[in-house]
Write a structure and sequence with these properties.
Length: 548
């Protein structure tokens, strides 16, 4: 394991101290001023790699800020930590595991030995099995219990075993086989599975039970209900063999559930749940878009992995995306990041990124277990444009909380129709412009605005954003975007010296709910706090009738 014990805590590093006083000066400066002083700022402060164009010029920063942020990364040994992750060292310290989602997209002739095993060979063995299975489903060769081809694929999973697959399916729907129907069941609320299955024919339905641990209560509850639904309709327990496959790291639990491990697609404990969409967890994605497109997705991620690994910090897009997030959060004090994809296909990207960023960096102790004395993970949220503009953008433009925004857009539409795409994209450019430069009272007066309303109409501007552009939303570009955000999260976590790869915070709620479940269907005396007791009592007395 790479030794970080001599790294001074984040706020003690010289670059942190320098950035703190630098921020005091930057807070008095305005983006308008930066752009007026440097006519080339918009082209100078941009990077390109693979198919991504990253404009960070509309952030409240100068060349000195970037220099100090790069210094902070070096003092935080981000590059050494990155190299340790890519080499398969156990950078997930609290779980003592390697973190190797990057191995999922290594080419088949690469080698990466982890604890004496070449994981690339294992990855490609599983990819080949997935491809074989996906082709059989897509061609109709795989037959259900009654000899009908599969036409519906239902992924059952939650968290990383759902958010990646559903996001990728929606993002790449344009490339999907249209005579197949895909549904995603995650919530233990029965409504989710009931609505997902209500119009499906069991004879033509395949369930992909996706769970890294195969121990997640929600997924097992939904998988059990799915099996009951299928067996009731097909009248035979043995139908499960042709209609259920599993994706998991836990063969014993898969077998105990009743799925033949011959129908299990494996992955490994070194793939974190929220980093797993390009492992076998992506089986539904591969069935939808076909193996060749899935390999393109992997290639797009791999290209950004290489860029992250080799480009100097100042020219490295994931490094800068992560460092700018730290700058905005820790030094300028902005608590959230809005991610606004101007592409309807990416409508689940913000939800996916919420798990990726917040389950990774929502931590309050360092890798060594010391309480942090600085802010860690910002809140990520968002909606596709232009819809958000007619909803919450008012606050982004004129509210008292400043929200740095990542805008994402594509030069060419996958659905060219009249002037839709020009209208869509003009809005990205206009929103980033309005946020940065606003509109002054003088400008309003010059336009003849009524004096009374001028204070209401003034847009202060000076609000930061990044703009990410790519030629077109392809599997390859999606792969690049995913890797970009994964590595940005890594950079942030490395600077904050936290473990971005564990998620202990979700455990307590799970344990408490397991204790409460039996209390809801009995009248055992309640021994919780008075609020929880009262809430459970209300539930017990109303659960039968549902009447007030
Ligand atoms: O509860 C959080 C979590 O552990 C996530 O990290 C994970 O993606 C999700 O649950 C699902 O876990 P599994 O794939 O093991 O069912």
């Amino acid at each position: 394991m790479h030794d970080t014990s001599t790294t001074p805590p984040f706020p003690g590093r010289p670059a942190w101290i320098a950035l703190n006083s630098h921020a005091t000066e930057i807070k008095t400066r305005r983006l308008r001023e930066f752009f007026d002083a440097d006519k080339n700022r918009g082209t100078r402060l941009h990077l390109e790699a693979e198919n991504l164009y990253f404009d960070y010029s509309k952030n409240r920063l100068t060349d000195e800020t970037v220099r100090l942020l790069a210094q902070l990364a070096r003092e935080s040994r981000v590059e050494e930590r990155r190299d340790a992750m890519f080499a398969g060292e156990h950078v997930n310290v609290s779980e003592n595991r390697a973190v190797l989602h990057v191995a999922l997209r290594l080419p088949h002739d690469a080698t990466l030995n982890v604890d004496g095993v070449n994981v690339v060979a294992e990855v490609h063995q599983v990819l080949n099995r997935m491809a074989d299975f996906a082709r059989k489903i897509r061609s109709g060769e795989w037959r259900g219990h009654t000899n009908k081809p599969i036409r519906n694929v239902v992924n059952v999973g939650i968290g990383g075993s759902d958010l990646g697959p559903v996001m990728a399916y929606e993002a790449l729907r344009h490339f999907s086989q249209r005579d197949l129907t895909f549904r995603f069941v995650s919530n233990v609320d029965a409504t989710d599975i009931v609505e997902a299955l209500h119009d499906l024919d069991a004879e033509e339905t395949l369930f992909v039970i996706s769970s890294k641990t195969f121990g997640t209560l929600e997924t097992l509850t939904n998988a059990t209900s799915a099996r009951t639904w299928l067996v009731e309709r097909l009248g035979d327990d043995s139908a499960v063999a042709k209609h259920f496959v599993a994706v998991s790291t836990n063969a014993d639990k898969v077998a105990a559930f009743g799925i033949d491990v011959a129908n299990m697609f494996e992955f490994w404990d070194w793939v974190g749940g929220r980093y797993s969409m390009e492992s076998a967890i992506g089986l539904s994605t591969m069935i939808a878009i076909g193996p060749e497109n899935f390999y393109e997705l992997l290639a797009g991620s791999h290209a950004i992995d290489q860029h992250f690994l080799h480009a100097p910090i100042e020219e490295n897009i994931p490094m800068l995306l992560g460092l700018i997030a730290i700058w905005n959060h820790d030094f300028l004090g902005f608590p959230t990041v809005g991610v606004m994809p101007y592409d309807q296909y990416l409508h689940r990207l913000p939800a996916y990124l919420q798990q990726l960023t917040m389950e990774s960096n929502g931590k309050h102790v360092t890798q060594h277990g010391d309480h942090v004395t600085y802010e860690t993970g910002p809140i990520y949220w968002g909606e596709p444009g232009t819809n958000g503009q007619h909803s919450f953008y008012q606050l982004i433009h004129q509210g008292t909380t400043i929200v740095p925004v990542d805008f994402i857009g594509f030069a060419k539409s996958l659905n060219p129709l009249g002037d839709h795409h020009d209208i869509l994209m003009s809005n990205i450019f206009a929103q980033a412009q309005a946020l940065a430069f606003g509109k002054s009272a003088e400008e309003l007066r010059a336009e003849g605005a009524e004096e009374r309303v001028i204070p209401h109409r003034v847009m202060e501007g000076n609000r930061p954003s990044n703009v990410l552009l790519a030629p077109e939303l392809s599997p390859r570009v999606l792969g690049s975007l995913i890797a970009l955000y994964e590595h940005s999260v890594f950079v942030q976590g490395a600077v904050w010296d936290i473990d971005s790869f564990d998620q202990w915070g979700v455990e307590l709620g799970k344990q408490l709910s397991v204790k409460i479940i039996p209390e809801l269907s009995s009248d055992v005396p309640l021994t919780h706090d008075s609020s929880t007791n009262a809430l459970i009592s209300y539930y017990r007395s109303h659960k039968q009738t549902g009447q007030s």
